[in-house]
Amino acid sequence: MRRITTTILTIAALAAGCASGGQQPQQPDTLSYDTTAQGKQYSVMVQPLDTTDGYSYTISVNGRKFIHQTIIPVVEGFHHFATAEDALNTGKVVVSKMISTSDLPSLTTEDLIKLGILTQDGNIKDKK
Question: Global pTM?
Answer without folding.
Answer: 0.76
